[in-house]
Structure formats: structure tokens, C-alpha cells
Design goal:
about 150 residues; alpha+beta; two-stranded antiparallel ribbon; 3 helices; about 25% strand; rod-shaped; transmembrane; TadE-like_dom; transmembrane helix; Pilus assembly protein; membrane
Length: about 150
């Protein structure tokens, strides 16, 4: 037993009953904190999946635009049409504010898709960009063998 400051009356030591009262409700607080952290982790996983999905959509649209504009008789407008159709079919709400640019020169075609990923977290704006480039297809006569 401990004595108080004046030294005349002993203080009782805390019993097991008293310490359990001090810990009462701590499991609830710990569980609530763990649930908040678990929800943030799950939301982060979903956000990562959305970024990957939007990136895949942008790459597919750029590849479709490139394939259409790359043909011998193709134009940049043909590529824009094919890419826009792919974005309409695949994009949905995941890839937002998508912009497709197709540039065709005499020997090269480039398709670029810019967009923004649907966000799970308020205020988070994640950009997505996909590039596809290749030569313009030309049909040539076979070279004669010597």
C-alpha cells in the first residue's frame, strides 16, 4: 500500500476491477479506427483499378484510330472517327473529358488520347494519356529478283 502525501493514510492500490473500467470502450474506438483505415485502403485499391482501366480504354482508342488512319487510303478524319467510336463504346464514365488527336503526315500517323480518370476520392484529378504511332501503309510492287 502506498501512503498519500501527508503520510497518514494509506492509498489502496488499484484492483483489477478498477483497471478494467479505465479500458472500457477502447475496443470500440480501436475498431472504428481500423474500419476507417480499411475503407481508405479499399478505396485506394478501387482507384488504382479505375486508373488501369481508363489507361487501357485510352490505349485501345488510340490503337483503333491509328489502325484506321494508317491504311493507304485512310485519313486523319477516318482515324478520329474510329477512335471516337472506340471511346464511345468503351469509355463510359471511367475515362472522362477524353480528347483524341490524330495527325497524319505523308509517312507517319500519330494518335493521342488525353483524358481524366473517374475519381473515388473527392478533389483527386488523375490524368491519362495514351500514344500510338506508326508508318502509313503503302502498297508497292515486289522487287524483281536478279
Amino acid at each position: 500500500m502506498k501512503r498519500n502525501r501527508r503520510g497518514d493514510q494509506p492509498q489502496p492500490s488499484p484492483s483489477a476491477e478498477d483497471t478494467s473500467l479505465a479500458d472500457e470502450g477502447s475496443a470500440t474506438v480501436e475498431t472504428a479506427l481500423a474500419m476507417v483505415l480499411l475503407m481508405l485502403l479499399l478505396m485506394g485499391i478501387v482507384q488504382f483499378a479505375l486508373v488501369e482501366h481508363a489507361s487501357h480504354i485510352a490505349k485501345a482508342a488510340a490503337a483503333n484510330a491509328l489502325a484506321q488512319a494508317q491504311t493507304e487510303d485512310g485519313t486523319a478524319a477516318d482515324g478520329n472517327g474510329a477512335g471516337a467510336q472506340a471511346l464511345a463504346q468503351l469509355g463510359g464514365d471511367v475515362l472522362q473529358h477524353a480528347r483524341l488527336t490524330v495527325v497524319r503526315t505523308s509517312d507517319q500517323v500519330t494518335a493521342v488520347v488525353h483524358g481524366q480518370v473517374l475519381s473515388v476520392f473527392p478533389g483527386l484529378h488523375l490524368p491519362v494519356t495514351a500514344h500510338a504511332a506508326g508508318p502509313v501503309e503503302r502498297v508497292t510492287a515486289p522487287a524483281s529478283a536478279p
